[in-house]
Amino acid sequence: MVKTRIAVAGLGYVGMAMAVLLAQHNEVVAVDIDAERVDLVNAGHTTIVDPQIQEFLGDRDLDLRATVAADQAYPGADYVVIATPTNYDPQANYFDTSSVNAVIKQVEELAPQATVVVKSTVPVGFTEQTRAEHPGLHIIFSPEFLREGKALTDNLHPSRIIVGGHDERARKFADMLLEGAADTDVPVLLTGSTEAEATKLFANTYLAMRVSFFNELDTYSAKRGLDTRQIIDGVCLDPRIGDHYNNPSFGYGGYCLPKDTRQLLANYQDVPQTLIGAIVDSNTVRKDWVAADIVSRDPKRVGIYRLVMKAGSDNYRSSSIQGVMKRIKAKGIEVVVYEPTFEGTDFYRSTVTHDLDAFKRDCDLIVANRITPELTDVAEKVYTRDLFGSD
């Protein structure tokens, strides 16, 4: 049986998980501008913190190699999956899609016959506009729904597979995702490309709204001297609400939710709305209140326990605790960071330590977005809004 040849551009969370998933049954060549990432993959190691990806790289028969050279990855490819970063640019009020655009131009030159599948999150309407700019290319969009630290798990057991296209190439890509999954009863939805783009942004904004709701419930309870957990338990017994995604935090963060909510808000230009803007504003208000609550305790040296957004992740990008940290520092309070995965000794002019015992001893208040057993012995020093010990 002839394998489908697939190139994957980008070896971050999305690209690494896609490459491993598809390499179970297809020939996959991953390309990344970072030579260190390429060397890791070729040596059988993951580029991100994800235990199941590492397990697959070590134990499964995968047809996967990596390269820094686009001309070794794209020519002859049947599909090119783009999984490069699209950070939100606050100045332009828009996603920076330059990395996606660059790959598309390379594919146009090196493999114009390939179907381009954009997995990077993009503004609503991007794919349709890009098709008009590159009429010789076949471009589709397929949103990704994964959690940091569990990227491959969420591709093996997907909640749904959505591909923005109705033709045979789109159907084949959906079939390849389904073939790689461990589950067989996965809902598959073929939509328009613009509808698929909107689905991604609306889904993440809904999750951000849920985080914000329970955070504002917690803020109210704390200000009124109420027991947050009792209220959440009572609210979540309603089966229409449920008891998932209800743990208070310092705010929603990570790579996706902050930028996706802002991009969706930007896409609402000339469209009436109040809720989407409120979700974005709520996250800032929450971090303001958390920082003020910490400062009101008059700490002399504050310890920031972990910069990562959630357990099992190595991602610091837009983690909510950083926003709290910056607000505390702005009040002139000394801040020390404990982050064992950070290689430097300084993070935004705050000392970084890998010595947990010294960290716990020398800080009079320890700020933790999520509580762990490591902090049990200094529980009286810990400031957290975590009630359930989960993300």
From TrEMBL:
Single GO term (MF): NAD binding
Catalysed reaction equations from the record: UDP-alpha-D-glucose + 2 NAD(+) + H2O = UDP-alpha-D-glucuronate + 2 NADH + 3 H(+)
Pathway: Nucleotide-sugar biosynthesis; UDP-alpha-D-glucuronate biosynthesis; UDP-alpha-D-glucuronate from UDP-alpha-D-glucose: step 1/1
SUPFAM superfamilies (alphabetical): 6-phosphogluconate dehydrogenase C-terminal domain-like (SSF48179), NAD(P)-binding Rossmann-fold domains (SSF51735), UDP-glucose/GDP-mannose dehydrogenase C-terminal domain (SSF52413)
Positions that bind substrate: F145, L146, R147, E148, K200, Y245, N246, N247, P248, S249, G253, M309, K310, D391
Signal peptide: 1-19
InterPro entries in the record: 6-PGluconate_DH-like_C_sf, 6PGD_dom2, NAD(P)-bd_dom_sf, UDP-Glc/GDP-Man, UDP-Glc/GDP-Man_DH_C, UDP-Glc/GDP-Man_DH_C_sf, UDP-Glc/GDP-Man_DH_dimer, UDP-Glc/GDP-Man_DH_N
Residues the record marks as active site: C256 (nucleophile)
Keyword NAD part of the UniProt annotation: yes
One annotated GO biological process: polysaccharide biosynthetic process
Record-linked PANTHER family: UDP-GLUCOSE 6-DEHYDROGENASE (PTHR43750:SF2), UDP-GLUCOSE 6-DEHYDROGENASE TUAD (PTHR43750)
Protein family: Belongs to the UDP-glucose/GDP-mannose dehydrogenase family.
Protein name: UDP-glucose 6-dehydrogenase
Gene name in the database record: ugd
